[in-house]
Amino acid sequence: MWYRMYILGEVITNLNKNRVLTITSIFTIFLMLLLVGVFGIFLMNISYNSEYMNDMLEIKIFIVPGADEYREERIWEALVEDDRIRHLEFESNEQAFEKAKEIYDEEMLASLGPEILPASYTVRLKDDAVLKDFVLFAEGLPDVYTVDYHTESFEFALSLSRWVNIVSGGLAILLGTLSLFLISNTVRLAMASRVDEVIIMKYIGATESRIRLPFMLEGVTIGFTGAILAVLLVSYIYNQIFNWFITKGTEEVFISGLRLIGVKETVLVVLFSFFTLGIMLGTFGSFIAIRKNLRV
Amino acid sequence: MINFNNVTKVYKSGTEALKNVNLAIKKGEFAFVIGPSGSGKSTMIKLIMKEEEPTGGELYVNGLDTRDVDRYEIPTYRKKIGVVFQDFKLLPNKTAYQNVAFALRVTNTHGRQIRKMVPQLLAVVGLLDKANDWPGELSGGEQQRVVIARAIANNPDLLIADEPTGNLDPRTSLEIMNLMYKINQMGTTVLVATHDKSIVDTFKQRVIVLDEGRVTRDIPEGRYVV
Ligand SMILES: Nc1ncnc2c1ncn2[C@@H]1O[C@H](COP(=O)(O)OP(=O)(O)O)[C@@H](O)[C@H]1O
Ligand SMILES: [Mg+2]
């Protein structure tokens, strides 16, 4: 075990010799992971909220309060005929009242009865593109009190996530390539400064893997260090956002009812993926340098 | 130990460095290879180290046909051969002790073993008191002693040296040669390539004379006579 510990010391000494390039490499990996982290967490949260987002594609058609069964039936018939509709569900005012009881204080509702709430039809369209047309149509039906839908905020979130996907994906690939290039250059420089050592190792009978090991570890150390820094910063930032969100965020944020993934789960995912990515890039970066420059 | 069987080496450039060399060096022997610059001494050593391949004939080292030693077997093969080369210097950023320890470490020797062996090796070459000196603080002869300690660190069967006294004064050269002889007396086969005739003469060991890639003379307990 002792000679393995020795290798680590060797690695750190050598990285320190090429300090500027080492730090640049670490910083690039750090930046890349930061980017992947920030956008990754954003996308994770969007998909986490997609259930809610789907609810937002629902159209709620409220019937004038106090309407009788005949008038409710008349709307039902108009909707059932419509082939734009995929899913249709009726909610009576009693059902709505039961739901309200779950959400609001019993006392608050004690003096009231179900008649204060309207009955409604919940509609999901086959193609959400015709949503606006359909809403106009539904609003025109007799005894319809109001029609609820969230199209704008939803479309905005959807297109935002699409753009975030493309931009962050592209940037991450760019930074990933750059960090690969920088790591392999750091390792290449390390090898150039230790040609004598490599020659001696060859003559002495060190195995190829033993000769490569310190160089390999140099790349891995760079990746690992970048990952640690990125994990720390991303976890801190997310924790801050999360705390802000649960204290006063919900009132101010443009879509209320949005939920965030817990800090612990997020940090765990970040930890795992950052270390995997960092170490993979480090290994691959040194591999490129070694393959090109170390003929044993 | 070493058998050159009609060995020829033609470099890619077309230079014929060795021509039909036949040679047998027995286990435990001490032999000089002598000849003017360009006569093929280093080439012989490179073939033994498997740094170059013969273009004709066969070369056996330690009972192995060198052609049968695969790429991945080279480290094990080289571990059995200690080398003292001109371009095989000490690492300047390591002390005498660390330079010797390095050879053991990169061949995966355990730490406890290293701490036991390095002082013994330095004692063999007579440099125990300079264990913590940096190469820059050591004289040329002392540096060469450390190189020899490093070469024998993995207890090789064979020690080969290419111009080991190249940059040393006659007195120091003799000391280094004495050290190699002492190592030979401890059981290691030793092969020394040199163009230094005076040294060869004082030792009265086997002398193999190379000239333009051919073995022209092979003198047991010989003197090198021009
Ligand atoms: N790598 C090489 N490529 C081409 N020619 C070489 C190479 N190494 C040595 N030679 C040539 O082979 C001949 C023998 O060289 P060498 O074995 O180094 O002799 P010595 O060590 O006795 O001086 C010389 O003519 C030299 O120029
Ligand atoms: Mg030579």
Please, could you describe this protein's structure?
The complex is a heterodimer of chains A (296) and B (226). Chain A has 296 residues and is α+β, with helices and mostly antiparallel strands. Chain A has helices at 2-17, 19-48, 50-56, 69-81, 93-103, 106-110, 131-139, 151-192, 195-204, 208-252, 263-293; strands at residues 59-63, 85-91, 120-125, 144-148. In chain A, helix 2 (19-48) packs across helix 11 and helix 8 runs parallel beside helix 11. Chain A is elongated. Chain B is globular, with a radius of gyration of 17 Å. Chain B is α/β, with parallel strands linked by helices and 226 residues long. Chain B starts with a strand and ends in a 7-residue tail after the last strand. At the A-B interface, helix 1, helix 9 and helix 10 of A face helix 2, helix 3 and helix 4 of B. Bound molecules: adenosine-5'-diphosphate and magnesium ion. Adenosine-5'-diphosphate is lined by residues 11, 13, 15, 17, 35, 37-43 of chain B.
